[in-house]
From TrEMBL:
Organism lineage string: Bacteria, Bacillati, Bacillota, Bacilli, Lactobacillales
Transmembrane regions: 12-33, 53-77, 98-124, 130-157, 164-187, 220-239
Superkingdom classification of source: Bacteria
Record keywords, A-Z: Membrane, Transmembrane, Transmembrane helix
Protein's name in the database: ABC-2 type transporter domain-containing protein
Length: 251
């Protein structure tokens, strides 16, 4: 336990030294949301409708996926290729402790980002909504680990540090291009949920449906659970095969 606490402290210090991530993870979507609201023809002071919530859920999707992809997986790749992961492994003696500590730090960061983003949303809307705040917390708790596990699939590939940001940028562009919530439980809906952006948005919408007692669909929860197990299987396979040795520089 002491090793994990020490690692968490190290990762927090590393995060604090790289504060630029807040711009990409939080400032950009928050500024875009504010601009979108100010340039719309709708009055600012209006109740948050189901349609507005669906739009909001995709902003949450962006924040969650980008934070875990860039701060969790890319950090693991960068530390592995720089030899830092190997050094920490020799000190701690456990690969899973390294992963758990890094995920915990990113989960705390993610919680702060969602809290700040939702606060801005409510300020712009000039109202207070426990549903928005509770759903934001709920979607973070339910989707952060599955998304982190799925994104860990990138650890299976030989990716150079110089190329990782370009690769993740293209990946995010593709995921955003293919977004869309499934309307009912079908094979197509399952394929849509393979996109982590859609997955997070659907989890958020289902939580919202519970709070609002509207359109609650147990079958959709079963589909989400099935996709979650698939995410977990992919991630556990990738993390099990994760080596602390640099791989991209090998011949």
């Amino acid at each position: 336990m002491r090793e994990i606490q020490a690692l968490i402290k190290v990762y927090f210090q590393y995060l604090w030294a790289n504060k630029f991530v807040f711009i990409y993870n939080l400032v950009v979507p928050t500024a875009f949301y504010g601009y979108r609201q100010m340039t719309s023809n709708q009055p600012i002071l209006r109740p948050i409708t189901q349609h507005m919530f669906v739009t909001l859920s995709f902003f949450w999707s962006y924040i969650i996926v980008v934070t875990l992809l860039n701060n969790f997986v890319v950090t693991l790749i960068a530390h592995r290729e720089l030899g830092l992961l190997k050094q920490l492994f020799f000190i701690i003696g456990s690969k899973m402790k390294l992963i758990a500590a890094l995920f915990f730090v990113q989960f705390i960061l993610l919680s702060i980002e969602l809290l700040l983003f939702n606060s801005v949303v409510l300020l712009i809307s000039r109202q207070f909504s426990l549903v928005i705040l509770a759903t934001g917390v709920g979607v973070a708790w339910l989707s952060a680990l599955p998304i982190a596990l799925l994104c860990s699939a990138l650890l299976l590939f030989k990716i150079k540090i110089e190329s990782v940001n370009v690769l993740t940028g293209l990946l995010l562009f593709g995921l955003l291009f293919l977004t869309g919530l499934p309307t009912h439980v079908t094979l197509h809906a399952g394929l849509l949920l393979l996109n982590p952006m859609n997955y997070v948005a659907e989890v958020a919408f289902q939580i919202y449906s519970i709070f609002e007692s509207a359109n609650f669909n147990p079958s959709m929860w079963l589909l989400v659970l099935a996709v979650t197990l698939l995410y977990a299987g992919v991630g556990l396979f990738a993390l099990k095969r994760l080596t602390v040795q640099p791989v991209a520089s090998r011949a």
